Amino acid sequence: MGGDLPANIVEAGELLRGRRASSLELTHELLARAKTSQETIGAFVTFSEESALSAARTADEELAGGVDRGPLQGIPLAVKDILATSDAPTTANSRVLDPGWGNRADATVVRKLREAGAVLLGKLVLHEFAIGWPDPDTGFRFARNPWDLARTPGGSSSGTGAAIAAGLILGGLGTDTGGSIRGPAAYCGISGLKPTFGRVSKEGCVPLAYSLDHIGPMARTIRDCALILQVIAGFDPLDPSSVEAPLLDLASELNGSPRGLRIGVPSTYFFEATELNAEVRQAVLDGIDRLVAAGAGRVDVDLPHASVAATAQRAVMFGEAYAYHQPDLQSRSELYGKYTRQQLQLGALYSAADYVQAQRVRSLFKEEALRALSQVDVLVVPTMLNVAPTFEGYDPDAMRRAPTFTGLWNLAGLPAASVCCGFSSVGLPIGMQIVGKPFDEATVMRVGDAYQQLTDWHLRTPTLAREVQPA
Amino acid sequence: MTDSAAEQAVAAIVERDHLRLSPEEYERLVRIYAELQPQLAALRLPEIRDREPAVIYPARA
Fold this sequence. Notes:
- The complex is a heterodimer of chains A (about 475) and B (about 60).
- Chain A is an alpha/beta fold.
- In chain A, about 40% of the residues lie in helices and about 15% in strands.
- Chain A is built from 17 helices and eleven strands.
- Chain A has an eleven-stranded mixed beta sheet, sandwiched between helices.
- Chain A is globular, with a radius of gyration of 20 Å.
- In chain B, helix 1 crosses helix 2.
- With about 60 residues, chain B is mainly α.
- The termini of chain B are far apart.
- Chain B has two helices and no strands.
- Chain B is about 55% helix and about 0% strand.
């Protein structure tokens, strides 16, 4: 198959259906690339070579026999190693998780991907339990950003972001409790979507914070994310937070134009944050201008309680994470990575009263966000405050004090996507976030796709990705 | 909040929850506890005085 690999899922599907490539060839090539890159990018915890090659052969046979399972058939993907799979243990990148936890059936989302004919290459690195920061003392690999190996790909879906940016997989699954899909998407220059709470089953996912956790797609383009979401969405009786809500045919909703859509821009807290990098701010404002020039309308909206909602999100997240981890913090805290342990310990500082107050603020902010969204179709804000930081000099306390542009939408349960909207002066990707109404992923994705039809930021690949070739 | 008040509060939490902390971790929690209190006080907004803590969306539509 050589060096000319398909750039995205849509392109790969056309190759497979046109018999110009086979899933087996594609799978062999990407597995080889992924293995070669383990010492540099380090995106994988485990490879599922045997089952991947078997799935690829099946996809090729089925396509040759006229059995078409849809756009993911024969497509090499991978999932964050916080999701249960039948072909590999689940680690959550931690020595703490019971090794038996992975000895079980596929998580619902994994099962759906397999049923759609996807080829799962393996399980991807994450920040420990989706909350930590790389600590080499744990013995677990940590992923590096393909745009600059000295920098983080973001977290906690670090391996998914890095692997897609490096061209090791065509898409994958991440999880998002406060921005863990959208942050890596922004830092790696790819696309990622956190769906509405309840849209995608969390069954078979190691929890971080029960009421904030979401599973969602990550890929190079929003269109590819739509193809993955179409497969993994849907009511699941095994997940008590799952919701029976109709899902449109997302691909057909992506008409490539933002014409007629109203974009809400909340300046206070977001664009006026003193911590916001000037290049990020300008790139996102330019992105909004681009959409407006193509026919969207701009409406200024207000979210006066965004700052206190960020405090509430942290209270809920740390409180719920502490509820899950308290027994292990009591009995074997030394097994956690240093930064994970420190993060989890913070949960002890929030009282039950703080948690209740946070839930009441949550209710207020949810109404406030819905009120703002009643005036517009989507909100557009920066995804992150800055470009990807270096590993060296990491200060978890500084991050905790800073505003969050992502966690707010976990608190409100609203769908939110990140798309690449430019690059900094040192060549690092910048993310623009699109937030929608409950269960209206279609409009979020329509705006993201339209932006990607107007621009080519999402087509750029890091030099390293082009250099990653099997030995 | 005074340093000693924060230290007393954290000592009580650590004892209650049977947490095992290094001295550095203990000191960090004391420092952050003091930092957190004004933020958490801000959660007591007058406009949510009568508001129920809410589940975001029901299990089934």
